[in-house]
Amino acid sequence: MSGTLTTGARLGAFWRSFAENRGAVFGLLLMVVLIVVAALADVLALHSPIEQYRDHFLTPPVWEADGMWRFPLGTDDVGRDMLSRLINGARLSLMIGFSVVAAALLTGTTLGLTAAFVGGAVDTLIMRMVDVILVFPSLLLAIVVVAILGPGMFNAMLAVAVVTLPGYIRLSRASALVELNRDYVTATRAAGASTLRLMFDTVLPNCMAPLIVHATLGFSTAILDAAALGFLGLGAQPPTPEWGTMLAGALQYYQRAWWVLAFPGFAILVTVLGFNLFGDGLRDALDPKLKR
Question: What does the alpha-carbon distance between residue 192 and residue 189 come to, in Å, rounded to a whole number?
């Protein structure tokens, strides 16, 4: 019972600290809205995201002249409903962000813990690999990886996961090295615990707070990099309703049909803003040095 109360008190203290940051709460609301929209995309979308209405090329939004309620945000250059494509793009963006973060977090944490526990030549090899990856600008390296593997959404996600990997490796290694000097680790090792148990059962839970914050901020980075690759034609391929790909196809119409460029860009902006605000608030709430 006391453990339950302690957990509840900690959660309450965390929420009070988090709620003090209004930007973080706003970011959380944006995330919730995005998740709901992605989950209900099939219900909220008025049309199929790839269906073409050839009598309605570049129809303006409903509040402009010649706009119609059938297409509230207008249509693109081949007559596809912009609202339906944006809604389905939210689902795709969340899938990209989750997949990239999960892959980078799992792989990076494992490599970081291995470097911290094994040390020696293994530690040197892993950290030199990280240094080599960090030499290149992230987007440039992602472009090189996709150019080698070939264009496509899966290859784009793999490339983004590769370029975001060093952050997780360095953070997990640094956190593990700090924890290795703690008395509870020494006691667990003296009790005969195996290396794997020390890594994943003893040390890892105490390293999760900074990793969770980094993963939250990395979510927005993954979405932004995937959109950049889509914009360059190296990510999701048409007619997939991915926001970066939508931007790439709209460039030639920016003067006569502003909505085909503005709405995907605004969707990316709002999504990245929401995750960044939430990540900043999460970092402030979990770091005792930053609590007011």
Answer: 5
Confidence of residue 105 (pLDDT cuts 50, 70, 90): very high
Radius of gyration of the chain from its Cα atoms, rounded to whole angstroms? 23
Cβ burial of 144 (10 Å; 0-12, 13-18, 19+) is middle
Task: Give the pair of three-digit tokens for residue 234.
Answer: 């190296």
For 196, counting Cβ atoms within 10 Å of its Cβ (0-12 exposed, 13-18 middle, 19+ buried), the class is exposed
* pLDDT band of 287, cuts 50, 70, 90: low
Distance CA 125, CA 45 (A): 49
Helix H or strand E segment including 116: helix 82-118
Q: What global pTM score does this model have?
A: 0.86
Q: Which amino acid is at 73?
A: L
Residue of 99, 122, 92 whose CA lies nearest to 246: 92
What is the rounded CA–CA span in Å between residue 97 and residue 194? 34
Tell me which amino acid residue 186 is: T
- The Cα–Cα gap between 234 and 188 comes to 49
Q: How far apart are CA 230 and CA 251, in angstroms?
A: 13
Buried b (16+ CB within 10 A) or exposed e, 54-90: eebebbbbeeeeebeeebebbbbeebbbbbbbbbbbb
User: Can you tell me the distance from the alpha carbon of 225 to that of 227, in angstroms, rounded to the nearest whole number?
Assistant: 5
Rounded Cα–Cα distance for residues 191 and 150 (Å): 51
